Amino acid sequence: MELDENLAPTDSADPADVGFWEKHYSDGAPPWDQGLPAPPLVRGLEPFIRGVNMLSSGATVLVPGCGFGHEAMYLARCGFCVTAVDFAPAAVDGLRRRVAQAGLELQVIESDFFALPEIHRGAYDMVVEHTCFCAIPPDRRDEYVQVMSGLLRPRGLLLGLFFDVDDTMKNGPPFPTTSEDIHQHFESIFDIVTIEKPHDSFDKRLGREWLACMRLRDSNMITDPLHAGYSNHGATGP
Ligand SMILES: C[S@@+](CC[C@H](N)C(=O)[O-])C[C@H]1O[C@@H](n2cnc3c(N)ncnc32)[C@H](O)[C@@H]1O
Fold first, then answer.
1. What are 102-114's pLDDT values in tens digits?
2. Is residue 206 classed as helix, strand or coil in its secondary structure?
3. Mean pLDDT throughout 177-181?
4. 223 C-alpha to center of ligand 1: Å?
5. Residues with CB under 6 A from ligand 1
6. Rg (alpha carbons) of the chain, rounded to whole number
7. 225 Rama class: left (phi>0) / alpha (psi -120 to 50) / beta
8. Which of 23, 33, 45, 224 has the fewest CB atoms found within 10 Å of its own CB?
């Protein structure tokens, strides 16, 4: 990640506050927005699109901190039933406009993902996140993991692309996310199935990201056929 993506030096507002993000969207060109879905996430989704793990077309996917929603729109095009959430009104408006122009069907919600209504509890087969974990203040990381796990169905999946920015960016966002951070915060609730440094990151982020696929740990095992492939049928891959 280049310094132009570090928002801290020029912005003294609190990233926990929607105004911090809204300002960047209202300015028109948020520095983190790459204009297309992140290639490592597109690749990471391939097994699920092929249905290898029974996450067949029509499965429910949540995209938290969706921004302009490039991943959300990609997922909708692939046939997933997508809910995209962001608390910045200008991001949500921008995504809704693009969705309408593209004639896609996906639900776009303006909300703090820490405060989604109860109806979302346990509603998702998968969470796909891109630069969301690194956007929240580090003291809320465990809360984030708890919230995401509560939104997933038993043995649901989280596919995330995390920034591993260097220590000079401690005053994020983005707040650095090392592989140790991922293990530390997610492993009490999720099994980390795969974690890798992607070879196909956007050029300026190459070598500074982690792609992780995790499965919600649930000792109660299978509750519906969609999840049967994850447990005792010898599923391969993520
Ligand atoms: C770095 S941006 C990433 C946006 C998008 N995922 C992308 O990669 O282009 C982080 C996003 O998370 C959103 N966000 C941060 N905290 C949030 C919260 N508590 N609830 C909902 N959205 C939040 C911000 O508004 C912003 O759109």
1. 999 999 999 999 9
2. coil
3. 94
4. 31
5. 21, 32-33, 65-67, 85-88, 91, 112-114, 130-132, 135-136
6. 17
7. alpha
8. 224
Q: How many residues does the chain have?
A: 238
Residue 16's pLDDT is what? 86
CB half-sphere exposure, 107, CA atoms < 13 A? 14
Q: Measuring from atom 11 of ligand 1, which residue has the nearest CA? A: 65
pLDDT, averaged across the chain: 85
Q: Which atom of ligand 1 is nearest to the CA of 34?
A: 9
Cα 86 to middle of ligand 1, angstroms: 6
The dihedral of CA 187, 8, 73, 84: what is its sign?
A: positive
Residue 229 sits at φ, ψ, to 5 deg, of -70, -15
Boundaries of every domain in the chain:
3-225
For the entire predicted model, the pTM comes to 0.88
Ligand 1 pocket test: which of 1, 23, 87 has the largest number of ligand atoms within 8 Å of its C-beta?
Answer: 87
Q: Which of 96, 132, 209 to mutate to test the pocket of ligand 1 (most atoms within 8 A of CB)?
A: 132
- Residue of 22, 62, 86 with the most ligand 1 atoms within 8 Å of its CB, for mutation: 86
154: left (phi over 0), alpha (psi -120 to 50) or beta: beta
Q: Which residues in 123-229 belong to E strands, given as ranges? A: 124-130, 152-163, 190-196, 209-216
pLDDT band of 35, cuts 50, 70, 90: very high
Which has the closest alpha carbon to 84: 104, 101, 102, 108? 108
The share of the chain scoring above pLDDT 90, in percent, equals 70
